[in-house]
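Ticket closed. Logging final result for TolC family protein.
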Amino acid sequence: MLVNTHKLILGLIVLFGWNVARAQEVWTLKQCIDTAQVHNKTLRINRNNISISEQRKKEAQANLIPKVTANTDYKYFMELPTQLMPMNALNPQAPEGQFRDLQFGVPHNINANVQLAMPLYNPQIYGAIQSTQIAKELTELHFQKSAEQVLFDITTLYYNAQIILHHLAFLDSNIANTGKLLKNMELLKDQLLAKGSDVSKVKLQAEQLNTQRQNVNYKLIQVLNALKLNMGISFEQNISVVSEIQQKVSLESNTRNILDLKIIQKQNQLLHSDLKTLNQSRFLPSLNLIASYGTTGFGYDKKPNNFLKFYPIGFAGVQLSYPLFNGTVTQLKINQKKLEITNNELQSKLIIEKNDMEVENAIQQKTIAQSTIINTENQIALAKTIYEQTILQQKQGTAILTDVLLADNALREAQQNYLSAVIDYLKADLELKKLAGTIKN
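Final structure:
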């Protein structure tokens, strides 16, 4: 009994330690991205789409393999087929132009055969094989784009979580400062050196800061939940992010690795492949090898000559099919493809121009944000100094509460401006990497 109790206590200790470890688990950005590469459902769907496109390519290639079918049928004629036979075929003296109706055959007919068909040349099949190969490459590009988007979303959420952590740190510092100010004001009130309204003002500010901290903390939970969703992990798992924000200096590149442009270009190849197939189907014939072997059975169930006899039948040959006229359907499809190609080329030019504009805007925003970060850091340091000096002056009786509150508001405004500048910098840097195709680096 004592041993079991010790085991239970040990198990509870291990479980408690595991829960504490999970509660304190800090994920780096790389860990989040690596986890998403495996568990993100969007990426898994796109991987399945690649497999589907591979199967479609194999399906198109399988049309070149011979097809073998087995056929059988049974017919019972309640009324035998009737033919008209010239009367002079049996009686030369019969007048020409007179016929006699005759019923040929037996009521029971059975057919069974095995047929083989293999395309020797079919422009539509070869066109479909080429198109499915291009479609597979297009699906792979879509996967790369979705992977970049997932990486972009996870990085954005991770940065947001880091910014919120810094916001919480600023709030904790401001709450601590307000708490010290409140104690000081209560002490001055007890000494009849401060009004009750002054204490109420500081209490109000303390409550506002606590409420703001609760709202910011709730936003952090929302961002972390969104991060878990994109990573593909359970919402019950407790995670946190590294609080330190690394503002790496990325080298600008003139190269443009635009996945959207690659997708449009691959779509252009697909459209040209479809157009080529349509043109070939108008002027090139299809040649198929055909063969059949089977048996034909005839049966008669009337006495005294009831019987059931089977006779073999087989043939082999080639079948040539040449399109002469299909009601201008193919020509109308060709016209549609040409218009689609024109739109595709215009879209390609539009993507290039849009990318150039967005790159220029991102570079300018990043440059401005870098300068703003430096300025706001200096402003925070100066605001802290002013706040501390104002607190000291207030203790000495040379500054009033309004001066302290103004200095505190100036400090919080400088902190908010710093966070906004960091957000702008990270957003511009991430957007620039995405536009340049270097986001995976």
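The CA atoms of residues 198 and 204 lie 10 Å apart. No further action required.
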